[in-house]
């Protein structure tokens, strides 16, 4: 997959943590019994090789798409986001301080970030953010797919991130991903202005 870069640190419990987040999100959005049955259909062994993880991601996405409507899929996967071993909170605090240093002016904040190559924009009252690399260790050996299902966790991550930065509820829509074969992931964030 192009534009893929392994994160600096990958938890030795990657598979277990992934399953725990999935289980919690399934229970929250459907039921405990349905979650347990679903997880039995898509097992993931600890210490899985990158190719095995990639196959699991595809199978999980297919199972979600077969068994749930789009709204439920989005809720389940958004609830599965990681925090990158605490980096979400650390990075959000840094961005929050930068936003505040720019007088909480979104245009000045975005302009400053774009000086470093962020590629963000503001259009029609929404913030559009781009990510130029995918650092999801579950996708290390994944091929491209037209499905957005797996990557809705990125929207969940971004929602948690931007709510911490802007100190208000926001909505995040995932528009495209690197996993789909695009050069970047593109997200639309609303509720900031």
Automatic annotation (TrEMBL):
UniProt cross-references to Pfam families, sorted A to Z: DUF6144
Superkingdom as given in the UniProt entry: Bacteria
Name recorded for this polypeptide: L-2-amino-thiazoline-4-carboxylic acid hydrolase
Organism: Eubacterium callanderi
């Amino acid at each position: 997959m192009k534009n893929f870069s392994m994160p600096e640190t990958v938890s030795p419990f990657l598979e277990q943590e992934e399953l725990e987040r999935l289980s919690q999100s399934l229970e929250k959005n459907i039921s405990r019994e349905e979650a347990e049955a679903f997880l039995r259909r898509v097992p993931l062994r600890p210490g899985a090789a990158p190719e095995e993880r990639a196959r699991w991601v595809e199978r999980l996405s297919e199972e979600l798409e077969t068994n749930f409507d789009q709204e439920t899929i989005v809720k389940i996967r958004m609830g599965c986001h990681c925090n990158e071993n605490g980096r979400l909170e650390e990075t959000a605090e840094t961005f929050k301080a930068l936003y505040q240093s720019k007088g909480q002016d979104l245009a000045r904040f975005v302009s400053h970030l774009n000086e470093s190559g962020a590629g963000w924009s503001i259009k029609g009252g929404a913030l559009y953010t781009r990510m130029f690399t995918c650092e999801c260790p579950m996708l290390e050996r994944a091929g491209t797919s037209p499905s957005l299902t797996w990557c809705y966790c990125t929207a969940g991550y971004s929602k948690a991130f931007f709510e911490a930065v802007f100190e208000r509820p926001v909505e995040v829509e995932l528009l495209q991903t690197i996993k789909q074969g695009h050069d970047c992931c593109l997200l639309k964030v609303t509720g900031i202005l």
